[in-house]
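Deliverable D2.4 — example input (structure tokens):
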């Protein structure tokens, strides 16, 4: 059983960007960083707003099975580290061709590195050791 101070690691529908205008707003007014197998676009939100995620996978990276796996890997990386952001934000992750065939650890590492380079993630406290 989890400790009372441990935040829940959910990723329900209320924490996802769903409408194309939300994706467009983040891309147009937010910041962008490319690292490894993903492109991260984000926009900092006012205090008290929930942190939300949107994932984009193009048909260029492969068939439906490949795109679905890429989305699952990116969502899981976000889910595990959603409480480590310095402020609430809307985040759009775009899968690049290099995500095909990569293990979760590699995708998670690219996600964490991109977030740290962008200055949106708190300093690391052994966060990669969460899963063995």
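Example output (designed residues):
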């Amino acid at each position: 059983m989890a400790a009372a101070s441990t935040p829940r690691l959910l990723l329900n529908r209320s924490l996802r960007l769903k409408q194309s205008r939300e994706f467009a707003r983040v891309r147009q007014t937010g910041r962008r960083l490319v690292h490894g197998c993903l492109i991260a676009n984000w926009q900092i939100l006012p205090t008290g707003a929930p942190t939300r995620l949107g994932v984009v996978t193009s048909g260029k990276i492969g068939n439906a099975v490949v795109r679905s796996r890429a989305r699952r890997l990116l969502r899981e990386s976000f889910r595990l580290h959603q409480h480590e952001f310095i402020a609430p934000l809307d985040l759009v992750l775009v899968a690049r061709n290099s995500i095909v065939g990569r293990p979760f650890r590699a995708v998670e590492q690219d996600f964490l590195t991109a977030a740290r380079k962008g200055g949106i993630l708190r300093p690391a406290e052994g966060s990669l050791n969460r899963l063995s």
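The two ends are 18 Å apart (CA to CA).
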